[in-house]
Specification:
Length: 313
């Protein structure tokens, strides 16, 4: 399948790369990484990245999205990276392209592109793209390697999560051949201002527990605005303040936003993905998300997670 992807790249002079909305490190890393792999090996091609702003990951080099007209899609190849469902794509114009390819590592939800390369055994989409480069004998440059490594680190939880395998480290070793500055990468990813540390402490004090020890935090839109933080930094950024609590195997962060309540579901033992899918979301077995319309629906989700701890469906 990797060779088929390479053949499509060779056919098209213009390539446009999409990823999911509200990007995380893996979405940004795979988008930037694929762009610079293509340019390194096919410098004559036009390669663009589109989507919403990088947000928290704006520190990554070449993370500013391109502004292109609809006409750019005529006769173009579009990649869609790191997502399982069409409603998650940032910039829906991918459908205007002549050919579409999706590369992803999430649990399958639907087929919506011409070619699909989906492998849930990968810890990250960046890992999948690194394997693509390895299998096809494509050259890497320092920017591609740095971007891909950054995404691998974030989606593997610093090489801690279950999906981390020997292949993960083989790919990381290949990327490190580009003389990466790991201190710089980890500093950019995890350094925090003291004021943000104090905010994190506030979230620790907000943690509540269901009867069966599902930990959860609920943050209203007014609270988000009072903190002066963006929704992503609260929902995705604070969910793992509940990780590593003794006796807690499932935790969920609810964050009100203008488009609904963002729900970030995590577990150290259980497959919580079916519950995310039930409420219109998706993701991985132990890390999934969804957006629900109101607090009542969020509490229904919490009830389902609580039942999971009792063995009930």
């Amino acid at each position: 399948m990797f060779e088929a992807v390479l053949n499509e790249i060779k056919k098209y002079d213009r390539i446009i790369i999409h990823r999911h909305k509200c990007p995380d490190g893996d979405a940004m890393g795979s988008q930037i990484g694929l762009k610079h792999i293509i340019l390194e090996n096919f410098p004559e091609k036009e390669v663009y990245m589109v989507g919403d702003a990088a947000g928290r990951y704006g520190f990554m080099e070449d993370s500013v999205m391109d502004e292109i007209p609809d006409s750019a899609y005529e006769g173009a190849l579009a990649f869609i990276l790191d997502l399982s469902a069409r409603h998650l794509v940032s910039d829906e114009r991918y459908s205007l392209a002549q050919k579409t390819i999706r590369m992803d590592h999430h649990i399958y939800v639907e087929t919506f592109t011409d070619m699909e390369v989906v492998d849930t055994s990968y810890e990250s989409c960046c890992g999948l793209i690194t394997s693509f480069a390895r299998a096809c004998g494509l050259r890497l440059n320092p920017l591609a390697a740095k971007s891909l490594y950054t995404g691998m680190v974030t989606d593997s939880g610093r090489f801690r999560y279950d999906a981390t395998t020997s292949r993960t480290f083989e790919n990381a070793a290949l990327l490190m051949e580009q003389k990466l500055d790991l201190n710089e990468i980890y500093h950019d990813l995890y350094v925090e201002d003291f004021d943000r540390m104090k905010i994190r402490a506030q979230f620790l004090l907000k943690i509540q527990f269901t009867a069966n020890r599902v930990a959860y935090i609920y943050t209203t839109q007014e609270e988000v605005e009072a903190l002066g933080m963006d929704t992503f930094s609260v929902s995705r950024g604070m969910v793992n303040t509940m990780a590593d609590i003794r006796g807690v195997d499932i935790w969920v962060n609810f964050t009100e936003a203008s488009g609904g309540i963002q729900c970030e579901l995590r577990s150290s033992r259980y497959n919580i993905n079916p519950i995310a899918v039930k409420y219109g979301g998706g993701g991985h077995a132990k890390a999934s998300g969804a957006t629900v319309p109101d607090r009542a629906t969020a509490m229904a989700m919490l009830h389902d997670l609580d039942l999971m701890m009792t063995g009930e469906k």
